[in-house]
Amino acid sequence: MTRKTEPAGKKTAWAGILTAALPGAALVVAGVLIAKPYILKALDLVLKMVVRR
Amino acid sequence: MSTTARKTSPGVLARGFAWAVAALLALTLMLAAFGGVALWALNSKSLREKVATDDALIRKETEWAGQRIRELGAVYGFDPAPVMVILDREMLEKQNLAGLDWLAAMLNSMKPGGNPEVDEGEIEEKLSMVLRFPDIKDQDELQKVYGEAASKISGVIQNATFSIRHQITDKGLEKAREMADVRSFLDLIKKIPLILGICAAFAAGLIVLLIAGNPKQALKYLGCAAGGAALLMAVTVVMVRSVGIMAAVEAANSRLAVLISALESHLLVVLGIVAGVLLLVYVVFLILYTRKGKVPAGTAEA
Predict the structure, then answer these.
(1) Residue A6: which of B19, B159, B301 has the nearest Cβ?
(2) Contact B232 A28 (CB under 8 A)
(3) Structural domain boundaries of chain B?
């Protein structure tokens, strides 16, 4: 039984970093976009209560 | 048809799992990096000193307090020009640092902190030398107006350098401490970067195991996870900045916005260094991985 080696190089380097980062990046982007209105509302409330003008 | 099956080593499933764990490792490393930097920022006296002495912050505070003192001058009938000397840089820096120390202590202990520790006597002493009311001749009235104006000016300086209504935060913290075990929660929060670090080490070990126990081949996955974490840090910073937090703070209090902006610029430098280290790990690991003649024949992925 022979085993084939996986070709790599610069392509693997770029594909690798993107493969490792993309799921997390998608999670961060989606999380921030979904939470944005809530973050701003909560911030507005906190600023009104706690911060002097 | 040949009876010999051509397979890659490690197998497709193992490599798929290794990439999935690498993605998880990148996310964990990114969270650990942000948590670690936040924890460092909370305990760094040098960072607080840098922010407290920031040029843009001092300029903004001087400008704001100067405007309020001119308005008070018009109301109480004193010449605001000599009073402006009390807005000296050293005093404002001291007040800024006291406010930031108060904030760090409050966030570190979650205990009601009262007023920031500032030397009010210094302001009063300086005011006694420059605050004059040329139009008021009656001594009783002079004393009364002097007391009121001095108290207002002192308040303006405190307001310029410390934007938080500490009575409200103190009450909130008291309530929170009554309702929950804040101390245990805080201890756990402080341990989160360490916990994430342990999870990252576990994920790295898992990748090595998935790649048939050959650490050299695992370098590709580990390096890409480190590089991915740096990329994720950049994406997170861009996304958080796009929320519009600074615009909301600017609308509420322009001095606080300048203070946060100064803090942010210092934190971005530290985050940049951490991301740089992660990218260096990525480059070094990939160089080690692609070096010829080191991977056993038949198992190389290079």
Answers:
(1) B301
(2) yes
(3) 12-46+193-289, 53-176
- How far, CA to CA in Å, does B4 sit from each of B11, B12, B254? 16, 18, 73
pLDDT digits (tens, 9 = 90+) for B139-164: 888 889 999 999 999 889 888 988 88
Residue numbers in B near A49 (CB within 8 A)? 165, 168
Question: For residue range B166-205, what is the model confidence (pLDDT) as tens digits?
Answer: 888 888 888 888 888 888 888 888 899 999 999 999 999 8
Query: Structure pTM?
Result: 0.84
Q: Which chain B residues are closer than 8 Å to A36 by Cβ?
A: 243-244
ipTM, two decimals? 0.84
Gap between the Cα atoms of B161 and B73, Å rounded: 20
Taking the CA atoms of B206, B207, B211 and B214 in sequence, report the sign of the dihedral they define.
Answer: negative
Confidence (pLDDT) at B88 = 87
